[in-house]
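Narrative summary of target 7.
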Amino acid sequence: MSKGNAVVGQSGGPTSVINSSLAGIVRGCRESTAVDRILGMRWGIEGFMAGHLVDLSAQSAETLDGLRRTPSSVLGSSRHKLQEADFPVILSQLRKYDIRTVFMIGGNDTMDTIHRVTEYAASVGFELRGVGVPKTVDNDLYGTDHTPGYPSAARYTALSVQQAGRLARDMQKVDQFTIYQSIGRDSGWLTAAGALAKQSAEDAPHLVYMPERAFDEERFLDDVADAHARFGYVSIVCGEGIRFADGTPVSASRTTDKFSNVEFGAMGGASVGLQLHRMVSGRFGWRGEFQITESLPMCAIDRAVASDLDEAFECGREAARLAGEGASGVMVGIERESDDPYRYRLGTTPLEHVAVRAKPMPDAMIVEGGNFPSGAFFDYARPLVGDLPEYADLNFDPVR
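Modeled conformation, tokenized:
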């Protein structure tokens, strides 16, 4: 097994803990005898092909420790879709910098990238180890109980819906409904997290719509009317990727990215939150609000979960340990051992089992009507997010 140097890249959208994984990889490589130097891809695989590298081995211990609490992707990211013409360029750079180990931190498209690069290297007889570290707020990767970054984004979402819901409740004489749009193209893990702070039936949210269930406009409007009749206002959470039964996005988008993923939002059509707003106001004539946070849950370090930061670091460190032992073609995964108290251990899964596939929420985690997460989801997610605040309420008994 050749020693050589290692390189690490960050890809796709960030999370508030992705830099903690980067710090873990660097720490693990420094502890390993299988790596000479650890380099960083500036702007992901796209920057790597252009020769944009940074020497992570030369960074101070203080800087690396600070990365464990720093948001966004410090190396810079990319969503470049690998083409056949890219592989010789990548191989040339691997040879030039004597790189024998590649780490990538990202989601399923990123795992596809590292899988294809290591497969190509093997096909031309170049010894290369490749290990993936999971990352995505969408929580839609196979091979892991959850992804680093998801617990913190779930907490961000839960707190946002909870606090916006208090506003909606208290402003119901002005605005009769509010809509919170969550990111999550193909899965509803983050959308469902909007309900984690709910304590009573009246609390927000009242309705949650996830991409795993076909959206029915008439049923939705019936749900809205029922909730309004019960509570005097309606709090709705929707995933950006919800679709009608024929597969058409509710956002009415027809635009796709380089990975053939539907793009949501203004560039591809009206946002789903705005579309639902139009449906409700058009049917009932009510005034309402909507919140679209877009990338904010990906970089809100102030709402990061401590255990999430630690797990991200340990996943990176484990990736370096595995590569040092000669492992390749795998992604580090989190395996849950206990809910109460929460405990986990680290394992691995082959990259080809993760690449270009999105893990949906299981049927058991969504209520039969499709408009709210079930108790099984709360059992799954609450140990990851931790305790959420409970706010005071006045006693509104009539004055006598």
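The first helix runs from residue 18 to 31.
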